[in-house]
Amino acid sequence: MKHHVLLLLALLAPAAIAPAKETAAKLPAASERFGSLAKAEEPSFRRHVVPLMSRLGCSGRECHGAFSGQGGFQLSLFGYDFEKDHKAITQDDNGGEAEVRVNAKEPLESLILTKGAMLTKHKGKERFKKDSWEYNLLAKWIQGGAKLDVEQTGDFDRLEVLPKEIVFNKPGEVVQLKVLAHWKDGTIEDVTQITRFRSNDDSVSAVSDTGKVENKGKGDTHVVAFYDNGVLPIPTMLAMSEFTAGKYPKVPTRTKVDELVVAKLRKAGIVPSEVCTDAEFLRRVHLDLTATPPTPHEVRAFLADKSPDKRAKKIDELMKTPGYAGWWTTLLCDFTGNNRQQLNTGGDLQLNDRFSRQWYDWIYKRVAENTPYDQLVAGIVLAKGRTRPDQNYEDYVKEMVGYFRKEDRTDFTERADMPYFWQRNNVRKAEEKSLAFAHTFLGVRIECAQCHKHPFDQWTQTDFKQFQAFFEPVSYGSTKKPGDDLSYGELTRAIQKEAGYEGKNDKNREKYRRILAERLREGKLVPIQEVYVRPPEKPRKLSEKEIEQKKKRDPNFNGRVITPKILGGEEVMLNEFPDPRKPLMEWLRGKDNPYFAASFVNRTWAAYFGRGIVEPADDMNLANPPSNRELMDYLAQGFVKSGFNIQWLHREILNSDTYQRSWKTTPSNALDEKNFSHALIRRLPAEVVFDSIAMATASTANFTKIAADLENRAIGPNASISGKARGGDNYTLGIFGKPARNMNCDCERTADPTLLQTIYTRNDPSFLQLVDSAKRDGSGWIDELRRAASPESSKNAAAKLEKYRKSRANLTEQRARREKDRLLAEKDRQKLEAQMREMDELIVRAQAELAGVPQAGKLDFDRAIEEVFFRTVSRPPTKDEFAKARQDLDAASDKVTGVRELLWAMLNTREFMVNH
Amino acid sequence: MKYLNCDGIPRRDFLRVGALAGMGLSLSNYLSLAGTGGVSGGKAKAAIFVRLGGGPSHMDTFDLKPGAPSTHRGEFNEIPTNVPGIRISEHLPKLAKCADKYAILRGVSHTLAAHELGSLYMGSGNRPIPSLSFPTYGAVISKELSGVPELPSFVAIPQQGANPTGYLGVEYGPFETGATPQPGKPMEIRGLSLKNGVTLEDVDRRQDLVKRYDTAFGDFAKEDKVLAGMDQFGQKAYQMMRSSKAREAFDLSRESMSISGLFGKDQFSQSCLLATRLVESGVRFITVNLGGWDTHSNNWATLKTRLCPQLDAGLSGLFLALEQKGMLDSTAVFVTGEFGRTPKINTSRGGRDHYPRAMFCLLAGGGMKGGQVIGESDAKGEGPKDRVITPDEVAATFYRTLGIDHRKEYHTPSGRPVMIVRYGEPIKELIG
Questions:
Q1: CA atoms within 13 Å, Cβ hemisphere of A748
Q2: Would you give the DSSP letter of residue A855?
Q3: Which of A623, A755, A884 sits opposite B236 (nearest CB)?
Q4: What are phi and psi for residue A887, nearest 5 degrees?
Q5: Residue A503 is inside which H or E element, if any?
Q6: Which of A507, A762, A884 is facing B349, going by the closest CB pair?
Q7: Which residues of chain B lie closer than 8 angstroms to A448, CB-CB?
Q8: Nearest to A343, CA basis, from A750, A715, A729, A741
Q9: d(CA A591, CA A629)
Q10: What CATH number does the domain located at B40-189+250-431 have?
């Protein structure tokens, strides 16, 4: 086979992989340097021994890198804890030097040599041959005294891999990678043979242990090189078709996003799909942007609209709807972890549902007003219980009670900040806070680095601990500050005394709870804890006793005081900042922050395309590069430049042809899933399924109401509160994969189809009840049709309307009369007004009913057929579908039943269940 | 496609494999194909998990301390059982007559005194941690043991509770009956029962109806994995609705008198009876619930008049029915609450409070040796006397009985490798 190699420089290589100065002195490959034991130079522990053992698999997870080691020998996973590994190799458990893995007197008898070369029994089999360069490298190191040399080697600078990109010409081609390690001291060494490699997709490119990349199929992926702290992905690709470069057809690129996406497609030989139809666009953008299907009326109007910019106008129009704010608030509540169960932090006050709703409402207001993303986040990140520096505990409680009391309630959403993120039970510990913070605001998962060096990123355990240090002073609980005349504890005891509740004696607990609830209702002081930041401690040496205590809690504690350090950034002296979250927030906002803007851009993109530019969307790490770096950079930088304008981002994406492409594939893009060359079929999110079914089956009047009013919607303010609330957690939402918001993972939301979901739409009683309008309260469409179909219905509807109108007039008159006579107590007034509102609703319903009733009780069933299609798949029926439906209606026992069957069937089509 | 985060397998891959393989309720046994662990020598093919929600008092049921001071002892007396040397509460007389069928674990101990956390621990064998949500037994078992086409693998009577599938995802979720069965009656099963005059002909007609209207994607529907997957589930749902096997399994009127006579008429008993029928029909895991054990006050009256009689009738019926049907050896039964209750009586309210340091569990069937007591609590029932039995060990035993290697590794969606049960080994006395 002819190994024809084509090397291409990356189009826009970031500075980190700029071309090497070929002039710099370069050390040759390991096999040359250590080929002969006699002539070999002395290898370095950090630069050679540890990377070699990692490449050989010794420190892998199945071998000595396992958390309890293997055969009594434990190495740090993937090798980065040099001191620990050196100890493990050179000392026995008691710190002595007998019976160890290196034998100073008889170097060639060392266990790491004899075991590694299988000269003695080794469960891990032969890792290298005796007298091979690998063997010699280890032997030479032992002969030289098996030294630890982390100090001497200095810091690692960066990796360079050549070629920087591999574009294969034909299947099966092989390219050898060359890896150069650059050290801060200026050393450059060829480390190809002691580098670990992995392919991100073996079906496209496979990579051997020695860095040979072999093409396995069409498509593009990355091969990743790992050495010391360097992680470098190399793009590899074999074009999908012969349509590349000059042969690529002319594809219009209307927007910058299109330009960048098509640039990649051109290279990859992928011809994108056509732009989708107006009907497809309308349904898609409605569901994606507002989680709400369009009304039949809206579909008709949009299809009839002839203006060329109607799609752009629609996008702008939709961003003003409650559905838009509700859906993106729902997603932001997912990312930030708004979970009522984790918020049961009000003690006997039991405020979790209300905390949770306030969390939603607070974000909702900001999304609706298009508050810049960084400001929204700052309101969460920097939040404290007390809103002013001079606010004492009593004033704090007064303020909080104001958000809960019955009368004259203060609007929580007006509060500048929202502290509940820090208040959750699952972020009590600093390490939990740092994990949640990294996931929520950076889209980075650092849990690996909690225990060992991140296997696929640069993070070390030290990085993790330094990052965690930011969160140590942040607490939720009670604190007494100068100026507090009253404390949480004092207030608690005072009210407990009033209730005769003495803590352990639970007899009066209910009474105590009742009193608390009553006081809260009335706006009196109740004990509420607070999010606060402990003042910075001066760095000092810990006493022996303190160290002992800390060690008890954390066996790995080594007595050092940790300086906080931003992930991948600078160390921060905390005593300069009363609140350590301040410098953290400034770092987030900085225009050079590699994660903050990018992670939100990526999550937004993922919501629109079913996958992120980085995928999984919340797993940004060096070994998991974006499928289109230029696109990622453009959007992230643009988002920062726009002033973190969320709607800018939506417009930028939604107005592109890339978003508006059809799902119908072309010969060259059918297999493409990551370059956005066609729309991917996505199952609707749980909330959207729930709400769409509710709407499709609702009466005409209710349909519009559900579209406009979020109160009972699965994307509404009650969605995150307890099970009984409508639209809240329930069976349906559960089986369709609504996230519990318990984990630091966007994967909690699932869009996989399952059998239970299908059973639900086929035959679940609660679903059938909706379809059948079984509740008979006038809220269902089929019921509306049945009533309309009866000859009496027109008369009935008119009579009913008249009756409601009379009652309404009565109530108004009653109120006016009693008001005049000053006989109306507040309670009665409220009652009266509630009745009036109820009557108003009935009137609207009756009006709609009457309007929907054709004269002489004759329903237009052709129109009903159309309506079913509009209600379910948001488009008119095709000619063929229309004919089929007419036949089916004629064959049904009665026509309304026929419509009901059609509605059931359309709700069971995949077209309804997916966004396409 | 592969992502490099700790060897991860992305979620879309589950789907692809599932859709191609055309497997059961769960999308696939992808990880068991790719995983390292193997199945070894388990006798049981199915499991019944009896959850005593609220936390039953060990001191008043299976671990009485007649010699303890009156501050601890409680009102009940011990009675002998049909196994010499084993004594249990006087209010469990039927269970006393079949003590040879089950093993009593005493001095099971952990430290989580909150209902939710305790339930998670006892229900999964993994102490809950904030960064990871563990799957409960039902999710793991329905993933590991393939079921039958007409029935779900994992059924909860009537409910399972929050987040039963943890990191495994909704594919392995329970089929919740939503209600408990009535004596001698067919049970309406959410989504499977044909109600309101719907006939099998209607089911056929509707299946045809969907086929005729679900045409928007044409041939593309066969190529796209989401669409193809949904189509397979459509077929399967149809099969289940049409199947007489499923309907008959949930129909208690079809049970012989000799079996149904072993049970009481209460909800728990009938749930246990249903569980035996489901096992018979091929369901792999059933959760049965008897709640109300959170007896902070009025402990003895509640136990005596309500809870113990139900537990006694239901559980003894379960053991005997499984045996009569010849299924005790192939069905593992695990009975547990989330914790025990304070040995020291809360005199002000006449109850006992949460107490995880000492509790009991029962294990039976699946080849586990019955008629023995394993472990022992101290003189006042305040903690294990010598040997501490951890929930992890009980879990490892339970899995072993089902032939599932508890040390098998799964990958979380974020790619983290996690063992089914990380700590703890099977209890030797039980697995022989």
A1: 25
A2: G
A3: A755
A4: -60, -50
A5: none
A6: A507
A7: 5-6, 416
A8: A741
A9: 17
A10: 3.40.720
- B230, closest residue in chain A (CA to CA): A753
Instruction: Locate the chain A residue with the closest alpha carbon to B192.
Output: A763
> Which range, of A48-57, A141-150, A341-350, A809-818, averages the lowest pLDDT?
A341-350
Query: Which residues of B fall within a CB distance of 8 Å from A913?
Result: 230
End-to-end CA distance of chain B: 44
Domain range list for chain B: 40-189+250-431, 194-248
Helix H, strand E, coil C: the string for A464-490 is HHHHHCCCCCEEEECCCCCCCCCCHHH
Supply the angle between the helices A509-522 and A488-499 in degrees, to the nearest 10: 120
**B128 contacts on A by Cβ (under 8 Å):** none
A-B C-beta contacts closer than 8 Å? 206
Measured in angstroms, the CA of B88 and the nearest CA of chain A are apart by 30
In the prediction, which pLDDT does A396 show? 97
* Average pLDDT of chain B to the nearest whole number: 86
pLDDT, average across residues A326-348: 91
What pLDDT is attached to residue A745? 85
Reference B359, options B87, B96, B118, B129; nearest CA is B118
Length of chain A: 916
> Which of chain A's residues have a Cβ under 8 Å away from the Cβ of B229?
752-753
Q: Within an 8 Å CB–CB cutoff, is residue A887 touching chain B? A: no
A722 touches chain B (CB under 8 A): no
Contact A665 B25 (CB under 8 A): no
| 8 A C-beta contact, residue A167 and residue A175 | no
* B315-334 tens-digit pLDDT: 999 999 999 999 999 999 99
Tokens encoding A272? 């994108």
Interface check for A200 against chain B (CB to CB < 8 A): the answer is yes
Domain ranges of chain A: 1-238, 348-356+377-442+445-577, 686-735+753-789+860-916
CATH architecture of A1-238: Sandwich (2.60)
Phi, psi of B46 (to 5 degrees): -150, 165
pLDDT at B55 over 50: yes
Using one digit for the tens of pLDDT, what is the confidence trace for A796-822?
A: 777 888 888 899 898 888 888 888 777
Chain A closest CA to B15's CA: distance in Å? 7
Query: Which two tokens mark A750?
Result: 């699932």
Structure tokens at B306: 């309500």
Most B CBs within 10 Å, among A758, A771, A782, A886, to test the B interface: A758
At residue A732, does pLDDT exceed 90?
no
Structure-block tokens of residue B431: 């697995």
Any B CB within 8 A of A891 CB: no
This model of the complex carries an ipTM of 0.84
Q: Do A506 and B296 make contact, defined as CB atoms within 8 angstroms?
A: yes
Q: Which residues of A touch B296 (CB under 8 A)?
A: 506
CB contact at 8 A, B10 and A619: no
pLDDT band at B240 (very low <50, low <70, confident <90, very high): confident
Task: Tell me the backbone φ, ψ of residue A166, rounded to 5 degrees.
Answer: -120, 120
Residue A589 structure tokens = 């906002």
Computed on alpha carbons and rounded to an integer, the radius of gyration of chain B in Å comes to 23
Residue A479 near chain B (CB below 8 Å):
no
Whole-number pLDDT of residue A459: 87
Task: Closest CB to A742: pick one of B10, B133, B206.
Answer: B133
Sole residue written with tokens 């609209």: A305
Q: What is the pLDDT of residues A27-52, one digit of tens each?
A: 888 888 898 888 888 999 999 999 99
Would the CB atoms of B167 and A665 count as touching at under 8 Å? no
The verdict on a CB contact (< 8 Å) between A763 and B214 is: no
* Chain B interface includes A275 (CB < 8 A): no
pLDDT tens-place string over residues B149-174: 888 899 999 888 767 888 887 778 88
pLDDT at A537 (0 to 100): 67
- Give residue A865's Cα distance to chain centre: 40
